[in-house]
User: What shape does this take?
Amino acid sequence: MHEMGIAEQLIKIAIDSIPQDIGNPKVEKVNLKIGKLASVVEHSLTFCFEIATKDTPLENARLDIDFIPVTVHCKSCDNNWEVTGPVFKCPFCEDGDVEMITGREIEITSIELVD
Amino acid sequence: MEINIQKRVLEANETEADINRKFFNEQNVFVLNMMSSPGSGKTETLCKTLGKLMPAIRVGVVVGDICTTNDADRLEVTGAKVTQINTDQFGGDCHLAANLIIDSAKQLGCDDIDLLIVENIGNLVCPAEFDIGEDARAVVLSVTEGEDKPLKYPLMFRVADVAILNKIDLLPYLDFDAKLAVDNMKQVHPHLPVFEISAKTEEGFDPWLEWLKIKVFEKTGK
Assistant: This one.
Protein backbone atom coordinates (compact mmCIF):
# COMPACT_ATOMS: atom_id res chain seq x y z
CA MET A 1 0.00 0.00 0.00
CA HIS A 2 2.95 2.35 0.46
CA GLU A 3 4.46 1.68 -2.97
CA MET A 4 3.51 5.17 -4.19
CA GLY A 5 5.67 6.69 -1.45
CA ILE A 6 8.52 4.36 -2.37
CA ALA A 7 8.11 5.20 -6.07
CA GLU A 8 8.19 8.94 -5.29
CA GLN A 9 11.31 8.54 -3.15
CA LEU A 10 13.19 6.55 -5.74
CA ILE A 11 12.27 9.02 -8.49
CA LYS A 12 13.60 11.85 -6.30
CA ILE A 13 16.87 9.99 -5.64
CA ALA A 14 17.24 9.16 -9.34
CA ILE A 15 16.62 12.74 -10.51
CA ASP A 16 19.01 14.14 -7.87
CA SER A 17 21.74 11.81 -9.11
CA ILE A 18 21.61 13.00 -12.73
CA PRO A 19 24.58 15.33 -13.38
CA GLN A 20 23.46 18.93 -13.89
CA ASP A 21 25.44 19.28 -17.11
CA ILE A 22 23.39 16.70 -18.98
CA GLY A 23 20.83 18.54 -21.10
CA ASN A 24 17.40 16.97 -21.43
CA PRO A 25 18.34 13.69 -19.67
CA LYS A 26 16.25 10.62 -20.34
CA VAL A 27 16.42 7.62 -18.01
CA GLU A 28 15.70 4.26 -19.65
CA LYS A 29 16.30 1.93 -16.74
CA VAL A 30 16.35 2.06 -12.94
CA ASN A 31 18.15 -0.80 -11.22
CA LEU A 32 16.84 -1.77 -7.81
CA LYS A 33 17.64 -4.28 -5.10
CA ILE A 34 14.58 -5.40 -3.15
CA GLY A 35 14.73 -7.92 -0.33
CA LYS A 36 12.21 -10.72 -0.46
CA LEU A 37 10.98 -9.78 3.00
CA ALA A 38 10.59 -6.09 2.19
CA SER A 39 6.95 -5.09 2.03
CA VAL A 40 7.02 -4.16 -1.64
CA VAL A 41 4.70 -5.62 -4.25
CA GLU A 42 6.39 -5.51 -7.65
CA HIS A 43 3.21 -4.88 -9.67
CA SER A 44 2.13 -2.07 -7.33
CA LEU A 45 5.55 -0.45 -7.45
CA THR A 46 5.68 -0.64 -11.26
CA PHE A 47 2.16 0.77 -11.50
CA CYS A 48 2.94 3.66 -9.13
CA PHE A 49 6.28 4.30 -10.83
CA GLU A 50 4.61 4.64 -14.23
CA ILE A 51 2.15 7.20 -12.87
CA ALA A 52 4.65 9.17 -10.80
CA THR A 53 7.28 9.45 -13.56
CA LYS A 54 4.98 11.22 -15.97
CA ASP A 55 6.59 14.44 -17.26
CA THR A 56 9.91 13.62 -15.55
CA PRO A 57 13.24 12.41 -17.03
CA LEU A 58 12.18 8.93 -15.89
CA GLU A 59 9.00 8.77 -17.97
CA ASN A 60 8.82 5.36 -19.73
CA ALA A 61 11.88 4.12 -17.80
CA ARG A 62 11.74 0.49 -16.79
CA LEU A 63 12.39 -0.91 -13.33
CA ASP A 64 14.86 -3.77 -13.19
CA ILE A 65 14.52 -5.42 -9.79
CA ASP A 66 17.10 -7.77 -8.34
CA PHE A 67 15.30 -9.67 -5.59
CA ILE A 68 17.58 -10.40 -2.65
CA PRO A 69 17.10 -13.65 -0.74
CA VAL A 70 16.44 -13.64 2.98
CA THR A 71 19.56 -14.78 4.81
CA VAL A 72 19.94 -15.01 8.54
CA HIS A 73 22.68 -15.56 11.10
CA CYS A 74 22.39 -17.47 14.36
CA LYS A 75 24.22 -15.59 17.08
CA SER A 76 24.15 -18.68 19.27
CA CYS A 77 25.79 -21.23 16.95
CA ASP A 78 27.29 -18.85 14.34
CA ASN A 79 25.62 -20.53 11.34
CA ASN A 80 24.25 -18.64 8.32
CA TRP A 81 21.50 -19.90 6.03
CA GLU A 82 18.83 -18.79 3.56
CA VAL A 83 15.23 -18.61 4.69
CA THR A 84 12.72 -19.51 2.00
CA GLY A 85 9.53 -19.42 4.10
CA PRO A 86 8.36 -17.59 7.22
CA VAL A 87 10.29 -19.87 9.59
CA PHE A 88 13.36 -18.22 11.13
CA LYS A 89 14.08 -20.82 13.79
CA CYS A 90 17.71 -21.97 13.67
CA PRO A 91 17.81 -25.41 11.99
CA PHE A 92 21.20 -26.14 13.57
CA CYS A 93 20.79 -25.39 17.25
CA GLU A 94 16.91 -25.11 17.32
CA ASP A 95 16.78 -22.40 19.98
CA GLY A 96 19.26 -19.89 18.64
CA ASP A 97 19.02 -16.11 18.68
CA VAL A 98 18.75 -15.24 14.97
CA GLU A 99 19.31 -11.95 13.17
CA MET A 100 18.64 -11.05 9.55
CA ILE A 101 21.58 -10.39 7.26
CA THR A 102 19.78 -9.70 3.98
CA GLY A 103 16.22 -9.63 2.72
CA ARG A 104 14.90 -6.21 3.77
CA GLU A 105 16.69 -4.08 1.17
CA ILE A 106 14.84 -1.40 -0.80
CA GLU A 107 17.75 0.15 -2.64
CA ILE A 108 18.37 1.96 -5.87
CA THR A 109 21.69 0.75 -7.25
CA SER A 110 21.98 2.70 -10.50
CA ILE A 111 20.14 4.41 -13.32
CA GLU A 112 20.86 4.08 -17.03
CA LEU A 113 20.50 7.09 -19.29
CA VAL A 114 19.75 7.08 -22.99
CA ASP A 115 23.00 8.07 -24.76
CA MET B 1 25.41 5.85 -19.59
CA GLU B 2 25.02 4.18 -16.23
CA ILE B 3 25.10 6.27 -13.07
CA ASN B 4 25.98 4.35 -9.94
CA ILE B 5 23.81 5.35 -6.94
CA GLN B 6 23.66 2.67 -4.17
CA LYS B 7 21.15 4.42 -1.91
CA ARG B 8 18.42 3.14 0.36
CA VAL B 9 15.07 4.34 -0.95
CA LEU B 10 13.71 4.84 2.58
CA GLU B 11 16.81 6.76 3.63
CA ALA B 12 14.78 9.96 4.07
CA ASN B 13 12.54 8.20 6.60
CA GLU B 14 15.53 6.59 8.32
CA THR B 15 17.18 10.02 8.69
CA GLU B 16 13.98 11.40 10.22
CA ALA B 17 13.80 8.36 12.53
CA ASP B 18 17.33 9.04 13.75
CA ILE B 19 16.37 12.67 14.46
CA ASN B 20 13.37 11.40 16.43
CA ARG B 21 15.53 8.94 18.38
CA LYS B 22 17.93 11.71 19.35
CA PHE B 23 15.03 13.94 20.43
CA PHE B 24 13.43 11.16 22.50
CA ASN B 25 16.79 10.34 24.12
CA GLU B 26 17.29 13.99 25.06
CA GLN B 27 13.77 14.09 26.48
CA ASN B 28 14.45 10.82 28.37
CA VAL B 29 11.29 9.25 26.98
CA PHE B 30 10.82 5.56 26.14
CA VAL B 31 8.91 5.17 22.88
CA LEU B 32 6.80 2.10 22.09
CA ASN B 33 5.46 1.61 18.57
CA MET B 34 2.28 -0.47 18.84
CA MET B 35 1.12 -2.24 15.70
CA SER B 36 -1.55 -4.76 14.70
CA SER B 37 -4.28 -5.48 12.20
CA PRO B 38 -7.47 -3.40 12.55
CA GLY B 39 -9.72 -4.57 15.37
CA SER B 40 -7.17 -6.52 17.42
CA GLY B 41 -7.93 -4.39 20.46
CA LYS B 42 -4.93 -2.07 20.53
CA THR B 43 -6.90 0.85 21.90
CA GLU B 44 -8.64 -1.16 24.63
CA THR B 45 -5.31 -2.76 25.57
CA LEU B 46 -3.82 0.71 25.81
CA CYS B 47 -6.70 2.12 27.84
CA LYS B 48 -6.28 -0.64 30.43
CA THR B 49 -2.47 -0.44 30.31
CA LEU B 50 -2.44 3.31 30.87
CA GLY B 51 -4.90 2.99 33.73
CA LYS B 52 -2.49 0.64 35.49
CA LEU B 53 0.74 2.50 34.71
CA MET B 54 -0.28 6.02 35.58
CA PRO B 55 0.46 8.10 37.54
CA ALA B 56 3.67 6.26 38.55
CA ILE B 57 4.70 6.34 34.89
CA ARG B 58 3.61 9.42 32.98
CA VAL B 59 2.32 8.46 29.55
CA GLY B 60 1.62 10.24 26.29
CA VAL B 61 -0.02 8.66 23.26
CA VAL B 62 0.13 9.46 19.57
CA VAL B 63 -2.73 7.72 17.80
CA GLY B 64 -2.74 7.13 14.08
CA ASP B 65 -5.82 6.43 12.02
CA ILE B 66 -6.85 7.24 8.51
CA CYS B 67 -9.96 9.00 9.80
CA THR B 68 -11.81 9.90 13.03
CA THR B 69 -10.63 10.86 16.51
CA ASN B 70 -12.50 7.94 18.11
CA ASP B 71 -9.39 6.29 19.56
CA ALA B 72 -7.98 9.55 20.92
CA ASP B 73 -11.33 10.28 22.57
CA ARG B 74 -11.28 6.87 24.30
CA LEU B 75 -7.67 7.22 25.42
CA GLU B 76 -8.11 10.75 26.79
CA VAL B 77 -10.49 9.37 29.40
CA THR B 78 -7.49 7.64 31.03
CA GLY B 79 -5.92 11.02 31.79
CA ALA B 80 -2.99 10.47 29.44
CA LYS B 81 -1.87 13.19 27.08
CA VAL B 82 -3.16 12.18 23.66
CA THR B 83 -2.82 13.50 20.15
CA GLN B 84 -4.39 12.07 17.01
CA ILE B 85 -2.89 11.85 13.54
CA ASN B 86 -5.37 11.40 10.72
CA THR B 87 -3.47 10.37 7.63
CA ASP B 88 -6.26 11.36 5.25
CA GLN B 89 -4.68 14.82 5.47
CA PHE B 90 -1.48 13.22 4.21
CA GLY B 91 -2.88 11.07 1.43
CA GLY B 92 -4.52 8.33 3.48
CA ASP B 93 -1.28 6.59 4.27
CA CYS B 94 -1.30 3.05 5.58
CA HIS B 95 1.42 3.68 8.17
CA LEU B 96 2.89 6.47 10.27
CA ALA B 97 6.17 7.80 8.91
CA ALA B 98 8.90 9.25 11.12
CA ASN B 99 8.28 12.88 10.16
CA LEU B 100 4.66 12.72 11.36
CA ILE B 101 5.72 11.35 14.75
CA ILE B 102 8.13 14.14 15.63
CA ASP B 103 5.57 16.85 14.86
CA SER B 104 2.95 15.11 17.00
CA ALA B 105 5.38 14.40 19.84
CA LYS B 106 6.39 18.06 19.95
CA GLN B 107 2.75 19.14 19.84
CA LEU B 108 2.03 16.74 22.69
CA GLY B 109 5.06 17.90 24.69
CA CYS B 110 7.51 15.27 25.91
CA ASP B 111 9.08 17.09 28.89
CA ASP B 112 6.53 15.73 31.37
CA ILE B 113 6.17 12.12 30.15
CA ASP B 114 8.27 8.99 30.65
CA LEU B 115 6.60 6.79 28.06
CA LEU B 116 5.30 7.71 24.63
CA ILE B 117 3.14 5.10 22.96
CA VAL B 118 2.49 5.38 19.24
CA GLU B 119 -0.66 3.52 18.32
CA ASN B 120 0.09 2.89 14.66
CA ILE B 121 -2.47 2.48 11.89
CA GLY B 122 -4.16 -0.92 11.88
CA ASN B 123 -2.19 -2.86 9.27
CA LEU B 124 0.14 -5.84 9.59
CA VAL B 125 2.17 -4.95 6.49
CA CYS B 126 3.33 -1.37 5.99
CA PRO B 127 4.03 -0.08 9.54
CA ALA B 128 6.64 -2.84 9.94
CA GLU B 129 8.68 -1.23 7.19
CA PHE B 130 8.92 2.25 8.69
CA ASP B 131 11.28 3.11 11.54
CA ILE B 132 9.80 5.98 13.57
CA GLY B 133 12.67 6.29 16.04
CA GLU B 134 11.04 4.03 18.62
CA ASP B 135 12.81 2.07 21.37
CA ALA B 136 10.63 -1.02 21.01
CA ARG B 137 7.92 -2.43 18.77
CA ALA B 138 4.89 -4.29 20.03
CA VAL B 139 2.53 -6.29 17.84
CA VAL B 140 -0.97 -7.21 18.97
CA LEU B 141 -2.74 -10.27 17.59
CA SER B 142 -6.22 -11.27 18.74
CA VAL B 143 -7.78 -14.70 18.97
CA THR B 144 -10.52 -13.67 16.53
CA GLU B 145 -7.93 -13.51 13.77
CA GLY B 146 -6.05 -16.66 12.65
CA GLU B 147 -3.29 -18.71 14.23
CA ASP B 148 -1.29 -18.44 11.00
CA LYS B 149 -1.14 -14.63 10.89
CA PRO B 150 2.51 -14.60 12.07
CA LEU B 151 3.41 -16.88 9.15
CA LYS B 152 1.40 -14.77 6.69
CA TYR B 153 2.91 -11.48 7.88
CA PRO B 154 6.40 -12.54 8.95
CA LEU B 155 8.08 -9.14 8.72
CA MET B 156 5.77 -7.65 11.36
CA PHE B 157 6.49 -10.45 13.83
CA ARG B 158 10.17 -10.46 12.87
CA VAL B 159 10.65 -6.77 13.69
CA ALA B 160 8.58 -6.88 16.89
CA ASP B 161 10.27 -6.85 20.30
CA VAL B 162 7.17 -8.09 22.10
CA ALA B 163 3.83 -9.62 21.11
CA ILE B 164 0.46 -9.57 22.79
CA LEU B 165 -2.19 -12.20 22.14
CA ASN B 166 -5.41 -10.39 23.02
CA LYS B 167 -9.06 -11.35 23.67
CA ILE B 168 -8.22 -14.63 25.40
CA ASP B 169 -11.55 -14.35 27.26
CA LEU B 170 -13.13 -15.45 23.95
CA LEU B 171 -11.10 -18.69 23.69
CA PRO B 172 -13.86 -20.94 25.12
CA TYR B 173 -16.17 -19.85 22.27
CA LEU B 174 -13.70 -20.21 19.40
CA ASP B 175 -11.70 -22.93 17.66
CA PHE B 176 -8.62 -20.75 17.94
CA ASP B 177 -5.54 -22.70 19.06
CA ALA B 178 -3.60 -20.24 21.23
CA LYS B 179 -0.62 -22.56 21.58
CA LEU B 180 -0.34 -22.89 17.80
CA ALA B 181 -0.55 -19.09 17.39
CA VAL B 182 2.27 -18.57 19.90
CA ASP B 183 4.30 -21.38 18.28
CA ASN B 184 3.89 -19.65 14.92
CA MET B 185 5.14 -16.38 16.38
CA LYS B 186 8.19 -18.23 17.74
CA GLN B 187 8.80 -19.84 14.34
CA VAL B 188 9.17 -16.37 12.88
CA HIS B 189 10.90 -14.85 15.92
CA PRO B 190 12.23 -17.56 18.24
CA HIS B 191 12.86 -15.48 21.37
CA LEU B 192 9.90 -13.11 21.05
CA PRO B 193 8.26 -12.46 24.44
CA VAL B 194 4.52 -13.17 24.09
CA PHE B 195 1.88 -12.12 26.63
CA GLU B 196 -1.59 -13.66 26.48
CA ILE B 197 -4.10 -11.16 27.78
CA SER B 198 -7.71 -10.05 27.74
CA ALA B 199 -8.04 -6.29 27.55
CA LYS B 200 -11.69 -6.76 28.48
CA THR B 201 -11.29 -8.83 31.66
CA GLU B 202 -7.68 -7.70 32.34
CA GLU B 203 -6.58 -11.32 32.65
CA GLY B 204 -2.85 -11.80 32.09
CA PHE B 205 -1.96 -8.11 32.39
CA ASP B 206 0.69 -8.31 35.12
CA PRO B 207 3.53 -9.91 33.08
CA TRP B 208 2.89 -7.49 30.21
CA LEU B 209 2.94 -4.48 32.55
CA GLU B 210 6.09 -5.80 34.20
CA TRP B 211 7.82 -6.11 30.82
CA LEU B 212 6.85 -2.54 29.89
CA LYS B 213 7.81 -1.07 33.29
CA ILE B 214 11.26 -2.69 33.10
CA LYS B 215 11.79 -1.32 29.59
CA VAL B 216 10.79 2.21 30.66
CA PHE B 217 12.98 1.97 33.76
CA GLU B 218 15.99 0.68 31.83
CA LYS B 219 15.91 3.76 29.62
CA THR B 220 14.58 6.54 31.82
CA GLY B 221 15.40 5.39 35.35
CA LYS B 222 11.72 5.96 36.26
Observations:
- The first helix of chain A runs from residue 3 to 16.
- The longest strand of chain A covers residues 27-35.
- Chain A has one domain: 3-113.
